């Protein structure tokens, strides 16, 4: 969901890296790689046919990178890169534990906090239509919550509102204030037993607003899923239509994103997809269960969407290329606000990342209990990296270090020519 990984362990770097929720170390699986150039190859791979590799597109450095990611503990990974050499897509590992089939090259994946970029873009589209103002009090459109009138629409998108994160907060002194039961921390087993429970966005917001704010509006930065559930309610209030309808009208439909889903409270995920897993202990016995089907309403617009690597590429390329927002609003979206995380600042629904090579990329990654997504683009949208990962997640975020390393490995390979040391921790 991009889980706010950091949401529950208090580590700002992790929060940024995972978006919403982190992943867990997965056992081995097959390391054989499938690769395909472009959509035709992806379709062949998804149908079970052996994909062909286009001349000049073998990209051994990308094959090696995804192979190493699987060896680091992921069950499977699918990668798509668009750059000056064209398009390359491939997958490594397995679609399910103990299986031999590779992950679908363009399969569906729960994208976690990458959802926030879609949501922010939708809000900014409404700003462009004159339906909303970025610097007006959010309370003007959301009466009834008792929202602090100093909180503006911009602060919600920028994570500068100070509003409590309904999935839990960890303060600088180590104090933990829990929110709803989530898959991480001490509530993991409770989440397992209630993973099909439906939450209404209003209840998530009401819970958050019943807790003390983290700071005065506009005086700090803290990643809070509540901001984006408020953004969802704002969209629905201003338009009079469900979020999913507005997403289709303004983003999914115009871009032809047929593989992208706004699931609301549905536990389903379209085929094809790699499977997602969760490991926990019960009565001293370790259990691993399939959590591919799960109700994502507990995270709502903090990280509930489903997409594909092709759709994520199309979206981030179109967004950064100026096809979705007027130039002034796109510039505001990508204007960095300091987060306190080295080389990672935040705009409006995007991270502004400084690479090891000194360049800038625009990104929002996410994780969603056994699934994760990576989404990066150069500021002009001309070069993109999108990926889908699957793993065995757990309450302790055991996959966190491998996830950070995987991000940095791919970022350096694609945007820095592979010259940086991938063994260094992300950020």
Automatic annotation (TrEMBL):
Q: Where is this region: Disordered?
A: 38-59
- What organism is the protein native to? Streptosporangium sandarakinum
Q: Please, which domain of life does this record's source organism belong to?
A: Bacteria
Instruction: Write out the biased-composition intervals (Low complexity).
Output: 38-56
Q: Which UniProt keywords apply?
A: Carboxypeptidase, Hydrolase, Protease
Picking any one GO molecular function of the record gives: serine-type D-Ala-D-Ala carboxypeptidase activity
User: Which Pfam family is an annotated match for this chain, by its short name?
Assistant: Beta-lactamase
Q: What is its EC number?
A: 3.4.16.4
Query: Which InterPro entries does the record match to this protein?
Result: AmpC-like (IPR050491), Beta-lactam-related (IPR001466), Beta-lactam/transpept-like (IPR012338)
Protein name in the entry: D-alanyl-D-alanine carboxypeptidase
| Class of enzymatic activity (EC top level) | hydrolase
Please give the Gene3D superfamilies that the UniProt record associates with this protein: DD-peptidase/beta-lactamase superfamily
Query: Per the database record, which ranges form the Beta-lactamase-related domain?
Result: 62-387
**Signal peptide interval:** none
């Amino acid at each position: 969901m991009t889980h706010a990984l950091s949401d529950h362990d208090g580590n700002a770097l992790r929060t940024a890296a995972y978006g919403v929720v982190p992943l867990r170390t997965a056992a081995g699986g097959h390391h054989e790689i499938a690769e395909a150039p472009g959509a035709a190859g992806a379709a062949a791979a998804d149908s079970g046919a052996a994909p062909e590799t286009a001349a000049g597109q073998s990209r051994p450095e990308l094959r090696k990178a995804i192979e190493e990611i699987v060896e680091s503990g992921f069950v499977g990974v699918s990668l798509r890169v668009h750059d000056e050499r064209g398009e390359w897509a491939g997958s490594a590992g397995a679609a399910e534990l103990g299986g031999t089939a590779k992950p679908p090259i363009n399969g569906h994946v729960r994208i976690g906090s990458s959802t926030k970029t879609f949501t922010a873009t939708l809000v900014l589209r409404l700003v462009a239509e004159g339906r909303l103002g970025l610097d007006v009090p959010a309370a003007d459109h959301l009466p009834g919550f008792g929202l602090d009138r100093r909180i503006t629409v911009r602060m919600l998108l920028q994570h500068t509102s100070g509003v409590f994160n309904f999935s839990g907060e960890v303060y600088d002194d180590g104090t933990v204030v829990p929110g709803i039961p989530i898959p991480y921390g001490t509530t993991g087993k409770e989440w397992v037993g209630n993973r099909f429970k439906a939450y209404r966005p209003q209840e998530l917001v009401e819970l958050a607003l019943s807790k003390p704010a983290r700071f005065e509006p506009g005086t700090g930065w803290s990643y809070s899923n509540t901001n984006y559930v408020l953004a969802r309610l704002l969209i629905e209030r201003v338009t009079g239509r469900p979020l999913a309808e507005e997403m289709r009208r303004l983003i999914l439909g115009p871009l032809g994103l047929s593989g992208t889903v706004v699931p609301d409270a549905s536990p389903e995920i379209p085929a094809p997809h790699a499977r997602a897993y969760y490991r926990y202990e019960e009565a001293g016995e370790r259990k691993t269960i399939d959590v591919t089907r799960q109700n994502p309403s507990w995270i709502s617009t903090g990280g509930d969407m489903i997409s594909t690597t092709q759709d994520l590429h199309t979206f981030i390329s179109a967004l950064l290329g100026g096809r979705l927002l007027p130039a002034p609003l796109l510039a505001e979206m990508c204007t960095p606000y300091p987060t306190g995380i080295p080389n990672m600042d935040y705009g409006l629904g995007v991270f502004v990342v400084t690479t090891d090579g000194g360049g800038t990329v625009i990104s929002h990654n996410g994780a969603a209990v056994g699934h994760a997504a990576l989404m990066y683009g150069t500021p002009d949208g001309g070069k993109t990296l999108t990926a889908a990962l699957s793993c065995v997640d757990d309450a302790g975020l055991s996959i966190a270090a491998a996830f950070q390393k995987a991000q940095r490995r791919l970022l350096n390979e694609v945007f820095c020519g592979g010259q940086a040391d991938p063994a260094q921790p992300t950020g």
